[in-house]
Amino acid sequence: MPALPGLRSLLDLILPAECGGCGVPGTQWCARCAAELADDPVLLRPRVDPGVDVWALGPYSGPRRRAVIAAKERGRRDLAVPLGAAVAGAVSRLQQWGELDPPDLAPVVLVPAPTRPRAARARGGDPVTRIAVAAVGARRVCPALVMRRGVRDSVGLSADQRRVNLEGGVRLTRSGAGFARHLASESAAPQRTSVVLVDDVSTTGATAAESVRVLSRVGIRVGAVVVVAGVG
């Protein structure tokens, strides 16, 4: 008797039928895909400049593209672990290169890029937040941003259309407001914090630009943007 759909989905979470990056059977994430995502992060030149450097694990192709689609559209929550490890590796590399302060001087806090609440609910939670938590642990992740109602899905929009669509479309959450107060408090003064905005894909840079603007307005300075994959 074939497995029921719900049971099949549960079994896929526990024992994934194939690698989320290349489709090879019998493994969650194969060594070949892990090695590809462990390469040095690359600096992007997005069409909409967020005012800080945007780094990607690589182009939006191959295992990065397949993993992002699987995590967002096919319910592969298990992929948060290997993608989070790759993001953590990229952040560590940026610290070694001097692009971010060393961890002993400024611990890292990851801020997931904002998503539309409806989309997050449909996916059983936000995949980018899961990736961030897998990268540094829940205590080092601040869900500071969310999309306002009325923001359209950006698929198919040009760079200018994405920018206009997002103008005023990102707001600070209560967690973000609390984080801003913490950074401004005297207790935070002796030790700096490296804030890194994390997203799955950078297409035009419009989301990063609006996110950085909203955060900087309340005194949260973003040191870098790190994405799983970059388009173009």
Percent of sequence in beta strands? 15-25%
Residue share in helices? 40-55%
Tell me about the biggest sheet?
A: 5 strands, mixed
Strand order of the largest sheet: 1-2-7-6-3
Helix run count: 9
Poorly predicted parts: none
Mean pLDDT comes to 86
Q: Tell me the count of domains.
A: 1
Structural class: alpha/beta
* SSE string, helices as H and strands as E: HHEEHHEHHEHEHEHE
- Count of DSSP strands: 7
Kindly, what is the distance between the CA atoms of the first and last residues, rounded to a whole number of angstroms?
47 Å
Radius of gyration, CA atoms, in whole angstroms:
18 Å
* C-alpha geometry: globular
Summary tags:
7 strands, two-stranded antiparallel ribbon, five-stranded mixed β-sheet, alpha/beta, globular, 41% helix, 232 residues, 9 helices
